[in-house]
Amino acid sequence: MTNLDIITIGESLIELSSAQKFKDVECLHKYYGGDSLVVAISAKRLNSKVGFITCLGDDAFKDFMLNCWNNEGLDTSHVRIVNEKNGLYMVSRSTIEDKEFIYYRNKTAGNKLSFDDIDEEYIKSAKIIYASGITQSLSMASREAVKKAFTIAKENGIITAYDPNYSSLICSADDAKEQFEEISPLTDILLMSSKYDTKSIFDIESLENIMKHLTDIGIKTIVIKSSENKGYFLNNGNFVKFYTDHVVDTTSSGDAFNGAFLHALANGYNAVESAKIASIDAGLQAQGIGAIKSVPYHDEVYNIYKTEVL
User: Fold this and answer.
1) For the chain, what is the domain count?
2) Which domain CATH number covers 88?
3) N or C, which end of the chain has less CB nearby within 10 Å?
C-alpha cells in the first residue's frame, strides 16, 4: 500500500459562491468544500501525499467532485459512493464585513460515514490522521468512525490531529464539549480558534491556562488561532503572526492553515516553521472567495516563506 503523509476524514460538500449579495447575484460559481476536504487539498497542493475518507453522494455532482479530487492527486481509494444526495453550502462575500452563508447538510451523503469506512491497514499507511468536530457531528456513526481511526493510529504510533471547528450552525456547545472530551485522550496535535472553540469548550478564561490544561492532559502540540491578536499561539511559547491583514473571505482559512501545518510537520519542519508556512497558506487562501478554489500551491507559498521574515 502507498505510504501517505496525511489522511483526513470528513464530509464533502458542493460550494456555490459569489462576491455579490444573494439578492443581487445572477450566477453562482460551482466548486466544492468541507472542512476536512480543505485540509486535504491544502496539504496536497503543497505536494504532500494525501488520502481522503468520505461518503460521496450518487447524484449529478458525483462525477464532478470525484474527477476534481483525482485531478488534484488525492488518494480516493476510500471514498465510498452512497445512494444519497450531496450536501451543499452557499457563500456570498460582497465585503469582508458582509458575509452570507447558507448550509444544507441534513440527510446527505456525509451522514453515512461510519465505523466500517475505517480500514485499519489504510490508517496505518499514513504519518498523520486528521478529523474535526464537524466530522464527529455528522452522526453517531461518523463519531464512532473518528474514534476508531484515532484509536488505530495511537496503537500504531501514528500522529493524530484534531480541530473542534465549533459552529453553532452545526452542533450545540455541550455536544462540542462531549466530542472533545471523547477524542482528546487520543489526540497528539490540537488546532483551535480562540474566537469559537476555546470559549465554547472550556470554562477557562486565559489562553495560558487553556494551554496548561491541554498540555497536562497529554496533548503534545497545540496551536490556537487568535483573531484578536492577529496570529497563532503555540504551546512552546511562540507566537506566529498572520501573514496578511488583507483578506477577502475567511471561509475555511483555518482549514487551509491546518492542512499546510500538517503538511509541513509531515515533511520535517518544526512546529514554529510549520506555523509560519501555514500562516502564509491561510493568508493567501483568504484573499479569494470560498473554501478550496483559492487555496494556493507549493511554489507560491514556499517562495514567500524563503524570502520573507514572519
Assistant:
1) 1
2) 3.40.1190.20
3) N
Q: What does the alpha-carbon distance between residue 79 and residue 11 come to, in Å, rounded to a whole number?
A: 10
Pairing state between β 29-33 and 50-57: unpaired
Angle, CA 189 vertex, CA 156 and CA 7 arms, to 5°: 60
SS3 of the chain: the string is CCCEEEEEECCCEEEEEECCCCCCCCCCEEEEECHHHHHHHHHHHCCCCEEEEEEEECCCCHHHHHHHHHHHCCECCCEEEECCCCEEEEEEECCCCCEEEEEECCCCHHHHCCHHHCCHHHHCCEEEEEEEHHHHHCCHHHHHHHHHHHHHHHHCCCEEEEECCCCCCCCCHHHHHHHHHHHHHHCCEEEEEHHHHHHHHCCCCCHHHHHHHHHHCCCCEEEEEECCCCEEEECCCCEEECCCCCCCCCCCHHHHHHHHHHHHHHCCCCHHHHHHHHHHHHHHHCCCCCCCCCCCCHHHHHHHHHHCCC
Domain around 146 = 4-307
Average confidence score pLDDT of the chain: 92
Nearest of 255, 178, 239, 181 to residue 207 by alpha carbon: 239
What is the value of pTM for the model shown? 0.94
pLDDT tens digits along 53-112: 999 999 999 999 999 999 999 999 999 999 999 999 898 877 767 788 888 888 899 999
Q: Own/partner pairs for 146-152, CB < 8 Å, 24+ apart? A: 146/9, 146/183, 147/182, 147/183, 147/186, 148/115, 148/118, 149/7, 149/9, 149/53, 149/118, 149/123, 150/183, 150/186, 150/187, 151/186, 152/118, 152/120, 152/123, 152/124
